[in-house]
Every structure is written in structure tokens, then in C-alpha cells.
Amino acid sequence: MTAPHLSSTAAHYLHELDVALSNTDARVRSDLLDEVEAALDGLDGAGLIERIERIGDPRFVAAEAGR
């Protein structure tokens, strides 16, 4: 996780998501982190912020994943 080509903003968001997913099934956690990382890969500036806003707050994403 957290490829070196991600911006610091994307890496921070992924870290926050990882922490929020700490009580989630390991496979679900891994798959979701991979999916979000792919969605953020190569983005920066306004495009990155927009994508993060569409994905949502890491705590909300984690809560939804735990359903």
C-alpha cells in the first residue's frame, strides 16, 4: 500500500482510512485500500481533493465497509 508516486495528501488520506478500517475484516480492508489507492493514483491539486471528497470521510467509508 501507499505507492511512492502518490502525493502526500493522498498518502495521508490512505493512512487515515487504514486507521479507520482497523476493526474491519483484513481482506475487506486490503481490497478497499487498494481500490481507493488506485482511485487516487496520479491525481493532485483540485482533482485529488475532489476525488477524496467524493470518496468521503475515512470514518464513514470504514463504517460502510463494516456493514
List the helices and strands and how they pair.
Blueprint: H1 8-20, H2 26-40, H3 45-55, H4 58-65
Helix pairs in contact: 1-2, 1-4
What are the key terms here?
mainly alpha, 67 residues
Write a brief caption for the model.
The chain has 67 residues and is an all-alpha fold.
Protein described:
Helix content is 70%, strand content 0%. With 67 residues, the chain is mostly helical.
Q: Biggest sheet: strands, sense, closure?
A: none
Low-confidence segments, ≥5 residues, pLDDT <50? none
| Residue share in helix | over 70%
Task: Tell how many strands the DSSP assignment holds.
Answer: 0
How does the overall form come out from the CA principal axes? Answer: globular
Structural classification:
mainly alpha
Please tell me how large the radius of gyration is. 11 Å
Assembly level: single chain
- Give the SSE order as H and E letters: HHHH
- Cα separation of the termini: 23 Å
Overall pLDDT: 93
- Can you count the helices? 4
Strand content: under 5%
Organism: Conyzicola nivalis
Pfam family, one: HAAS
Protein name: Membrane protein
